[in-house]
Amino acid sequence: MKGCSTRTVNGWTVNRVHYSADPEKDPATEAGKKWVEDAQRGVRKRDWRQEYEIDYRARSGQPVFPEIDENIHKIKPFILAPGAWTVYLGADPHPRTAHAFVWLAINKFGEKVVPWSWWPQEQNDELEGLGKPRLTVADYAKRLKLVDKSGLNLEPWRSVMDQAGKIFNASEGVDYFQKYREENVYFEPAKKNRDLSGYDSISEALKLEKFEDGEYPGLTIMEGCGDNDELFRQLRDLRFREWRGIVTDKDAPEEVEQKKRHLVDCLSYILLDGPEFVPIGKQRNYPVQYPKIGW
After folding, report:
1. How many angstroms separate the Cα of 110 from the Cα of each of 84, 89, 130, 138, 217?
2. Is-contact 165 175, C-beta < 8 A?
3. Whole-number Å distance between alpha carbons of 101 and 154
4. Got the DSSP string for 16-84?
5. Cα–Cα dist 5/7, whole Å
6. Non-local CB neighbours of 213 within 8 Å, separated by 6+ positions
7. Rounded Cα gap, residues 79 and 275, in angstroms
8. pLDDT value at residue 288
9. Which of 98, 198, 200, 249 could form a disulfide with 121 if both were Cys (CB 3.0 to 4.6 A apart)?
10. Helix, strand, or coil here: 155?
11. In angstroms, rounded to a whole number, what is the distance separating the alpha carbons of residues 199 and 14?
């Protein structure tokens, strides 16, 4: 039957049904051509190949964020007007590389902008080259407080950190959440980036939205602010791992290259948290994580 095939995966018989099995969707017909044209609108080519054409290599070696465009997503810096934006902070700690931080602001219209980011990897490398200790949590906390008190209006309404921060130093009986609390900087556990859902949230935010006076992205990045240019590079350069296996035996895994992506992860933690605009005067309710001490 046209559009249908069978293969064996790990001992299981798998029936594959392509959309062309439906006569009304067969691209060889006029009706089918029209259906394909309509169905492809708004769908990325790699996703179409993977989901509709059943191409198991569709994402292999492909950019994770093909939507990113310097001419669209980079904007000139501006100062956030007090009360007009709600700021969120995402953190990605790591025992071997520098901790990464991204600030994201959202207004009442749902527009999202990254006004600042920080990933002092070069500073850590320089310190190591001089035989000096790398930056400590106390050093990071000091810088975060300076950003809070700056005139950039970046004090976060909510701060989230990779859940792995609880276990990096588990053997020592201390986690990064605790270390930052000791410096009076408080983070809440971020949702996990399961099945790359956090990256899907970034892709969705980068899409253009239609307005009366044109199309604009839902997420932009202020050019040259902190390490925002590095964040843009990480978004632009991040790719799915190239699959070199035999796809007739098993599906190619959707894995992202193990390369610089710490700032990208920070951004994904914020978006997974569901950031929203919070009007002035609203009281914040902190979840009680440690009932015995009321916090």
Report:
1. 11, 17, 46, 34, 11
2. yes
3. 12
4. EE-GGGSGGG-TTSHHHHHHHHHHHTT--HHHHHHHTS--TTTTTT-BS-TT--HHHHEE---PPPTTT
5. 7
6. none
7. 20
8. 41
9. 98
10. coil
11. 29
Return d(Cα 87, Cα 92) in angstroms, integer: 17
Residue 60, CA atoms < 13 Å, CB-side half-sphere = 13
User: At residue 207, what is the residue type?
Assistant: K
Mean local confidence (pLDDT), 67-77 = 95
- Are the C-beta atoms of residues 58 and 45 closer than 8 Å to each other? no
Contacts of 131 (CB under 8 A, 6+ apart): none
Domains of the chain in sequence order: 4-41 (no CATH), 70-277 (3.30.420.280)
If we measure between CA atoms, which residue out of 78, 108, 63, 87 comes closest to residue 206? Answer: 63
Report how far residue 130's alpha carbon sits from residue 132's, in angstroms, rounded to the nearest whole number: 5
Residue with tokens 């050019």: 223
**Euclidean distance between CA atoms 155 and 229, whole angstroms:** 21
The pLDDT tens digits for 201-249 are: 999 999 988 777 788 899 999 999 999 999 999 999 998 877 665 555 4
| pLDDT, tens digit (0-9, with 9 covering 90-100), for 76-125 | 999 999 999 999 999 999 888 999 999 999 999 999 999 999 999 999 99
Do strands 100-106 and 112-118 pair parallel, antiparallel, or not at all (unpaired)? Answer: antiparallel
Nearest to 268 by CA among 88, 144, 115, 141: 88
C-alpha 111 chain-centroid distance: 16
Q: How far apart are CA 287 and CA 273, in angstroms?
A: 14
Contact 23/29 with Cβ under 8 angstroms?
yes
Side chain identity at residue 3, one-letter code = G
Picking from 34, 27, 93, 50, the residue whose alpha carbon sits closest to that of residue 253 is: 50
Q: What span, in angstroms and rounded, lies between the C-alpha atoms of 168 and 184?
A: 20
